[in-house]
Structure to design on (179 residues):
């Protein structure tokens, strides 16, 4: 009997996802933090951004790493389309604002803001901590509707689908909210 219980527990643990990102329908935790766009620091407020439309909030492990650079380039290429749909894009990592000032110019190509979460309070509130290396964020993307509800979540260390998937979610939201 003990063997069956241990087997059942072990099997259920293996079936549990390695992350616990917030799910669609959850209220997005509000935050205000230092961000930078085109190398110019400013204070980013999620509440203020949501007044303008949906927000694509993506967490990434670290500026200037290979996957994060690819993802930043892809978001930069898609920023104009996100803007046309009324959405704002912001990336968040634990990096200090000085490093992000450079990243926002070179890798984000002056197109969208990146924010510093040095104490990981934002990352933790969004359950976006990388389990294998908790000092980093997991690569997790959210789309947050203007009312503050999460309407889409995607977590994968591979950066390939984050832009495509969040764009699809924003397009779907826009189609449902256009009269």
């Amino acid at each position: 009997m003990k063997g069956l219980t241990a087997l059942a527990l072990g099997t259920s643990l293996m079936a549990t996802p390695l992350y616990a990102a917030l799910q669609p329908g959850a209220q997005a935790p509000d935050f205000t933090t230092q961000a930078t766009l085109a190398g110019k620091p400013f204070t980013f407020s999620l509440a203020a951004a949501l007044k303008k439309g949906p927000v694509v909030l993506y967490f990434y492990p670290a500026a200037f790493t290979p996957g994060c650079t690819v993802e930043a380039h892809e978001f930069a290429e898609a920023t104009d389309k996100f803007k046309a749909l009324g959405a704002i894009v912001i990336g968040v990592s634990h990096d200090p604002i000085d490093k992000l000032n450079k990243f926002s110019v070179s890798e984000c190509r002056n197109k969208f803001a990146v924010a510093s979460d040095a104490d990981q309070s934002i990352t933790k509130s969004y359950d976006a901590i990388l389990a294998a290396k908790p000092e980093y964020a997991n690569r997790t993307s959210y789309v947050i509707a203007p009312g503050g509800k999460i309407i889409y979540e995607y977590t994968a260390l591979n950066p390939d689908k984050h832009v495509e998937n969040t764009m699809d979610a924003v397009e779907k939201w826009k189609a449902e909210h256009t009269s």
Summary: The first strand starts at residue 32 and ends at 37. DSSP finds six helices and seven strands in the chain. Residues 25 and 179 are 23 Å apart (CA to CA). Residues 1-19 have pLDDT under 50 and may be disordered.
